[in-house]
Amino acid sequence: MMDRATHRALVEAGYAPLNRYVQKYSASAVEFHLPTLPPSKNTLRQRTQTGIARKDTYKSWINSAGKELMAQRVRGIKGPYKLSIQAVRPDKRRRDLGNLLEAIEDFLTTMHVIEDDSLSEMISMRWVTTGTGVTVRVETASVE
């Protein structure tokens, strides 16, 4: 979850708390751009004396991406959804595209864009060659 200080700062800056905004206004599809790639699945969490906690780099990415998401006034999707992700390779190193998925779905759940990442019906991911960061599209899925 977003820490209270960041949430308070966003509200004071004029951004509505997203969970209230999403519950009131539901969309059938949303698309948004995040200027930076999320951290890899392998670097999201760490063991502590009290259990498992998010790493500071992951918290920082969630906070900055949350500000960007709120600035774009993204609405939420209720129920089953389809997810499409287009990410720009940051360099020529070998990277596993699937390692970005967990951070993005956790982020969407934290920001109340989706109700729960277990409701995913279809996921499409690909590397693109132009632009920066990641473009995410979420749309309602018809249950067949």
Report on this structure.
- By secondary structure, this protein is an alpha+beta fold.
- It has one domain: 60s Ribosomal Protein L30, Chain: A (2-Layer Sandwich), CATH 3.30.1330.70.
- Helices cover 29% and strands 26% of the residues.
- It contains four helices and six strands, in the order ααβββαβαββ.
- It has helices at 4-12, 18-24, 56-71, 101-110; strands at 29-34, 45-48, 51-54, 81-88, 120-128, 134-140.
- Strands 1-6-4-5 form a four-stranded mixed sheet, covered by helices on one side. Strands 2-3 form a two-stranded antiparallel ribbon.
- The radius of gyration is 15 Å and the shape is globular.
Topology:
Elements: H1 4-12, H2 18-24, E1 29-34, E2 45-48, E3 51-54, H3 56-71, E4 81-88, H4 101-110, E5 120-128, E6 134-140
